[in-house]
Specification:
Strand content: 25-35%
CATH topology of the largest domain: FAD/NAD(P)-binding domain
Number of helices: 9
Radius of gyration: 23 Å
CATH architecture of the largest domain: 3-Layer(bba) Sandwich
CATH superfamily of the largest domain: FAD/NAD(P)-binding domain
Number of domains: 3
Low-confidence stretches: none
Distance between the termini: 71 Å
Helix content: 10-25%
Mean pLDDT: 95
Length: 393
């Protein structure tokens, strides 16, 4: 079988690329190869869906007839097992070989499982796919307590959903406070306390040493000796690019598949996008960034030399009910910090060389866009003080 374009992976990067290819070249044929048994779905909704009843169909981005109408052939539950880069041929698990004019590598990433003894036990989960989520929810039916290892953004979102489901949620974080990348120590420690008030127990500052139990998981032991009883463990400890398909190939690979701003690899006619791609030394691993990469990759595959990928201006938003948090820029390395507190709302600007280099809004995030611009435009702090009126002595 021969196609104009082959996309390996049906995450948001692969889906966006297929959609863009169809838009730019309506008569072209596209094949999407995936180990998933479902069409492309909203992976970013998974932590939210922990607390909800749902059907898999509710998460699918486009129905089957969209693929058929646009001449996009899906090979689901058919992972690629080999690629002949010279001849642009992809071998599938079934033994079928398909040929393409150009190939996009969009294999995504897998959950990182840290080297903690006991991670292989029944009752230890990661959430990377819909099937992971369904298995997790089925296991927890009738059970009460869940330990979430990892106090980052997704870990806290999962803990919030578990509480909404009526489960006891316990977060274990290696650092001395949660959201260690997004919050300075002052507000990070405050969030530890506020999570406790919300019914989410936090153990911070002592890494997980062991996951143990009689068969299934029964407790987690920390390095300081603390033992936490639990019915299940959810590992929220980051992801790693899926490189096994190409690791022994002539592709240039560092942390991910190295690409330029046009999503081109070092091999002609081969492109990469999404969580598997490394741009300017960085593997980003964000939904919106993967969408942008997929769009640029499709444009490049169609011969558009003008569209290039631009690094996103990263920021974080987290909604924990009444506790809303916004963070942007560098909040750990700075010259000075400007503070303004009012009615349990906390405003912080971090300044380097007289210009805003980071910001945190904790509680009231209504000024998020303004603070985002301060950070991304490196606005002088004197100008910010005059404009906002918040940080004047």
């Amino acid at each position: 079988m021969e196609f104009n374009y082959i996309i390996i992976g049906n995450g948001i990067a692969g889906y966006t690329a297929a959609k863009e290819l169809n838009k730019r070249c309506p008569d072209c044929t596209v094949a999407i190869v995936s180990d998933e048994k479902y069409s492309s779905y909203y992976r970013i909704k998974m932590t939210e869906l922990i607390a909800k009843d749902f059907e898999v169909e509710d998460t699918i981005i486009s129905p089957k007839d969209w693929y058929e109408f646009n001449d996009i052939t899906e090979y689901l539950s058919e992972p690629a097992t080999g690629i002949d880069f010279d001849n642009k041929e992809v071998t599938l698990k079934s033994g079928k070989v398909i040929k393409g004019g150009k190939i996009l590598l969009a294999m995504g990433a897998h959950s990182f499982v840290p080297p903690i003894p006991g991670c292989e036990r029944e009752g230890v989960f990661t959430l990377r796919s819909i099937d992971d989520l369904l298995e997790f929810k089925h296991f927890l039916d009738g059970k009460d307590r869940v330990v979430v290892v990892g106090g980052g953004l997704l870990g806290l979102e999962a803990a919030k959903s578990l509480r909404e489901w009526g489960k006891d949620a316990i977060v274990i974080e290696n650092q001395n406070h949660v959201l260690a990348r997004q919050l300075n120590e002052e507000l990070g420690l405050k969030l530890n306390e506020d999570l406790e008030d919300m019914g989410i127990t936090v153990y911070a500052g002592s890494p997980t040493e062991l996951i143990d139990g009689d068969g299934s998981v029964e407790f987690v032991r920390l390095e300081d000796g603390t033992e936490v009883k639990t019915d299940a463990v959810l590992l929220s400890t980051g992801v790693r690019p899926n490189l096994s398909l190409v690791e022994d190939s002539p592709l240039e690979i560092n942390r991910g598949i190295v690409v330029n701003e046009k999503m081109e690899t070092n091999l002609p006619g081969i492109y990469a996008a999404g969580d598997v791609a490394e741009v300017k030394g960085t593997v980003i691993g964000l939904w919106t960034a993967s969408m942008d990469m997929g769009k640029v990759a499709a444009a490049s595959m169609c011969g558009d030399e003008d569209l290039e990928y631009e690094e996103p201006k990263l920021f974080t938003r987290l909604d924990l009910g009444e506790k809303k948090i916004f963070s942007a820029g560098d909040v750990s390395d700075y010259d000075e910090v400007y503070k303004f507190d009012k009615n349990k709302n906390y405003y912080r600007l971090f300044v380097t060389d007289g210009k805003v280099s980071g910001a945190i809004l904790y509680g009231d995030t209504s000024l998020m866009n303004k603070f985002k611009n301060y950070v991304f435009n490196h606005t002088p702090i004197l100008e910010v003080k005059e404009e906002s009126g918040l940080f004047n002595d």
